[in-house]
Specification:
Layout lengths: L4 E10 L9 E9 L3 E5 L6 H5 L10 E6 L2 E2 L5 H7 E4 L12 H11 L4 H14 L15 H13 L5 E5 L10 H11 L4 E5 L3 H4 L4 E6 L2 E6 L2 H5 L11
Parallel strand pairs: 3-8, 3-9, 6-7, 7-8
Antiparallel strand pairs: 1-2, 1-4, 4-5, 9-10
Helix pairs in contact: 3-4, 3-5, 4-5
Amino acid sequence: MDKRVAIQVEHLTYAYHNHHEFVLNDINLEIYEKDLTVIVGPNGSGKTTLIKHFNGLFLPSNGQVKVYGIPVSKKTRKQVQRLVGLVFQNPDDQVFFPIVEQDIAFGPRNMGLSKEQVEKKVVHALKEAQIEHLRKKSVFELSFGEKKKVAFAGILAMDPKIVILDEPTIGIDPWDKPAMIRTIKNFQPHHTVVVVTHDIDIMKEATRILLMWHGEIVGDFASYEEFLESKYAHPLKRA
């Protein structure tokens, strides 16, 4: 049976304001529902710029992005952002409230849920992110890696259909990395997950690997093993 398309990208080009050179150049792509899609590539290849189009943080210079058939635009941005949760690489750009539970509760509360519903969402997100012990902690006492988990929990609490993570294992303690990867894997069977990463351990778990280079997708692989057999694997550059 054919997989349902969660995100559709059609002839996407993007240039920052006052720049003539495209950061993304004529990208066509379909992200499938309940896949774990990993996007890899050298720094500056356009990975983060691409994923910011998936929830309307960036809008195309040309072309179009659709989320479950909804064209992403200024008018639909709020609607799309309820479907697509984006966890930034730097949690300091995403964690604002002084106490962990307050930060995680912000999204569900902003959705107009009742106090009881918000509490359920917070409890579930804390458990999913494996940070129940941090619930009453001040965010100012947390390590960088712990704040990344709080940012992730804040997105999980909103229960989006699609979760996008930008370098989720950068900055976390090595002994915490397996738990982060397990969290991603446990979440993926019921949701669509997109991960930007250089982490081989995450790549090994992927159902699909996309390779970016200079604002284009130059490789599309069904597994880490298939990626390893390609000309791009050692190192990540054109042969």
